[in-house]
Design brief:
With 331 residues, this protein is an alpha/beta fold. The chain has one domain (61-309): TIM Barrel, CATH 3.20.20.220. The chain has helices at residues 21-36, 39-44, 49-55, 64-76, 93-112, 132-145, 160-171, 188-195, 220-239, 253-266, 283-290, 307-316, 320-329; strands at 81-85, 117-121, 150-152, 177-182, 201-205, 246-249, 273-278, 296-302. Strands 1-2-3-4-5-6-7-8 form an eight-stranded parallel beta barrel, surrounded by seven helices. Helix 11 links the parallel strand 7 and strand 8 (296-302). The longest helix is centred in the first third of the chain and has 20 residues, at 93-112. Residues 1-19 have low confidence and may be disordered. It binds flavin-adenine dinucleotide. Flavin-adenine dinucleotide binds at residues 8, 153-154, 180, 182, 205-209, 249-252, 276-278, 281-282, 299, 313, 316-317, 320.
């Protein structure tokens, strides 16, 4: 099963009326999402120095040490972190085992350095394509070794059912597992309802993959509203003891404001929820949260297999392409 791409809801928005900037933006987004799944591009583009320079904006480096170093720097500012080794769709159970070994080593390093740094993992990086039981076992092994919640990312829509099943299986054996839900999917509210009896740990995001309108909301404003509604619901359910930890993965200042207002009004303490952002994105908003009482955690990515992930970051904000082009012009 292949990842359908990366990058976001607007990718499917149809042009309305005459040509406008929004249409150009949508086309560029779709092109970037298409590129994220193209094997030839994945092989060629990362070789260019300007692409390597541009990706540094979103990741501190390819080695585990680079991520740990940045985790220590953020810890010194009082900001806890998440860490992920980039990669998806491994082609064998043995490759998934190598990923597990990397994460086990990482969990050991995190502990020995005394960091509050949680693991965030992709199901297909841990072998979901090779079988649900093996991938669930891998998540259980990591959760037993790691401190804090092990977060399971949500990939493209064909993976939603197996991922939720994997997480159910893992959670029946270890409590410290959480999963991501994507606000752009039509099915997400129903998935949320179905998860509630397990008092789940959930991370809500807007969604980063190219999905057809039958599967995901095509308009960004609708996705924003779905996120807002579900975020408030999650906080309310947390207060009522029906939810585990509430993580809101967004850089959207308006939604962060609305969620923090809801948390305040519902009296949900900062130990029960947090805003999560990606390293290098929304840096001024991260600074603002650091100076406020809104809990923040930053996800740091590292690893050699960054191409599809990087294309999804470009597609989230096509203006980022300008930054890549400027790197190309530098010597
Ligand atoms: C911790 C975390 C975990 C995630 N895990 C998953 C996952 O498992 N599955 C999944 O599908 N998606 C995941 N995502 C990605 C998510 O779905 C969105 O694509 C991404 O967060 C951008 O949406 P936004 O909520 O920030 O809102 P947007 O409306 O897209 O952005 C709000 C503002 O943030 C800034 N911004 C956002 N993205 C960028 C960017 N790439 N470059 C520069 N500025 C930017 C811009 O200023 C923008 O105006 C995750 C995101 C985070 C933060």
């Amino acid at each position: 099963m292949r990842d359908s791409g990366g990058g976001g809801p607007e990718a499917n928005a149809a042009p309305t009326g005459k040509f406008n900037l929004n249409w150009g933006h949508t086309m560029l987004k779709s092109a970037l999402l298409w590129a994220s799944t193209n094997p030839t591009m994945a092989q060629r583009l990362p070789r260019y120095r300007f692409v390597q320079r541009a990706v540094r904006r979103f990741m501190p480096g390819e080695r585990m040490d680079d991520a740990l170093r940045e985790g220590e720097a953020l810890a010194a500012l009082g900001t806890p972190t998440l860490v992920t080794e980039l990669g998806e769709n491994v082609d064998s159970a043995a490759a998934a085992q190598r990923v597990v070994d990397e994460y086990l080593r990482l969990a050991g390093e995190v502990r020995s350095r005394g960091l509050d740094m949680q693991l965030s993992v992709k199901p297909t990086h841990l072998g979901l394509d090779q079988g649900l039981a093996g991938a669930a076992e891998n998540v259980v092994r990591l959760a037993r070794e790691a401190d804090g919640i092990v977060w399971v990312d949500m990939e493209s829509s064909p993976y939603v059912d197996p991922t939720l099943e994997l997480v159910r299986e893992a959670r029946s054996r270890v409590p410290n597992v959480g999963v991501c839900l994507q606000a752009y999917l039509h099915r997400t509210e129903a998935d949320y309802e179905a998860l509630l009896p397990d008092i789940p740990n959930l991370r809500l995001v807007k969604g980063a993959y190219l999905e057809p309108p039958e599967v995901a909301l095509p308009q960004k404003t609708d996705v924003d509203e779905a996120f807002r509604r579900l975020a408030v619901r999650m906080l309310r359910d947390r207060k009522a003891g029906r939810m585990g930890f509430v993580a809101l993965g967004t850089h959207d200042p308006r939604l962060i404001r609305e969620a923090s207002r809801a948390a305040r009004e519902l009296d949900v303490p900062g130990s029960d929820w947090e805003v999560e952002m990606l390293y290098g994105i929304g840096v001024s908003e991260q600074g603002r949260l650091r100076r406020s009482d809104i809990p923040l955690r930053v996800l740091i990515s590292y690893g050699a297999h960054w191409f599809p992930w990087y294309m999804r970051r470009l597609a989230e904000r096509p203006a980022n392409v300008g930054f890549v082009l400027r790197q190309m012009l530098k010597r």
